[in-house]
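Q: I have 427 residues here and want to know how they pack in 3D. Can you give me a structure?
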Amino acid sequence: MRRKRVGFIAACIICSVVAVLHAQDSDVDLVDQVSIEDLDSLFSGAVDTVVEPEDHTEVGEAVSKSLEGIVSFPLKFSGSFTGQLGAAYWPTDDSHSGYMNFENHLYFNARPVTELTLSADLRTTYYNRFGFELYQIYYDYIMFSHMFLSGGKKSLSWGEPHLYSSSGNILNDSVYCANIGATFPFGPISFKGVALTPIHEIDAEDTSTKDTDQQTTEDTTGSKISYAGAVEFVWHSMSLTAYYRRWPTNWQYKPSGAVYHYDQAFGAQAKQSIFDHIDVYAQGFVYTYPEKYRIDKEYTDFQQTQVIAGMYGVWDTPKFGFSLEYMYYRNYDEKFYKGVDVGHEHKVAYSVGLGNLVDGHLALVCTGNHNFTLDQGCVTPGFVIKRVFPSADLQSGVQVQYNGYDRSKEGEVATCVALKLVFSIDY
């Protein structure tokens, strides 16, 4: 028993240290955009489940034997690879382009004792440039059969929205932080808490040109810790959740070159399942920020308010799914754009699909979004032909953009025709 305790403590320390030392730089884009690139994403993202990587190898036993005396438990390896090869044509201005990208995840998993799981995700990507990082490394520990502890470099998601998932997740920056959290379920009520600290100095204010060794004694780790908590009540098919998060004053986000300082966030969410296939939910957040960063003194200390409401549903027979979300967004720091208050937005996003056609080889999908404030958006109907080659799907669609969205000009419409092969392999 003493050896197990020592092994658990050592494993936790390894996870925390490796997360800090080996995580690579990544850009945190907190500006919401609805992805319309993956035409088959409707069915993969519409169900509220977590899919564990499937283990197809016996290499764990060999690793255990080769590391005997150093590691006393088997390591399990699995992975997933997704690659895209395609081309796009814009009839509006007679332009065309080709592209290629891929993303590979190599998962490591070990369970030395029943209560402890160690996990890691090594990610390699190519999106115009190569990327290589230890995306996640963390431990999960069950204490006294009803307390759940977790720590390391781990992606956390608190919030129900699927299409506006970045804004709907109060912990959307968690994967770029070292974090430790706990969950305490007591009957229908669960309590969650997590502490996060940015891994890279660039995430803290006024440190982009400083080395770690040059920091003053006032720039302590404690001053960079962000705290968050949630309380969830579940009754039959209904759930109610309250959220809270606090940031230190020297914490800042830099999405797309903009800088956002947050102080506190308060939020609530309600979710109800109806007709066995449909979930309806609504969520609201209020963000405050320190007084020294307030730009417009006419407003209160609110920096941002937002409301997201939506629904999604999935049916197996026939294979049909849809997702619809509305978002109201108010940022008091935003400026006017072409006479329109862009800090005060109403927008909607949607996705619908029908699959298992032609003996399961064809799926029809349509995604889109519309910004009511700017009166612009896009719609993308398309289709997916399954397994045209081994482990490869053919996807095609036509995107129609209007009134200044992306490449379209104000008052005009632009179209894009895209065709691509998507390779997907789990190993």
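Q: Anything worth noting?
A: The chain has three helices and 20 strands. The two ends are 35 Å apart (CA to CA).
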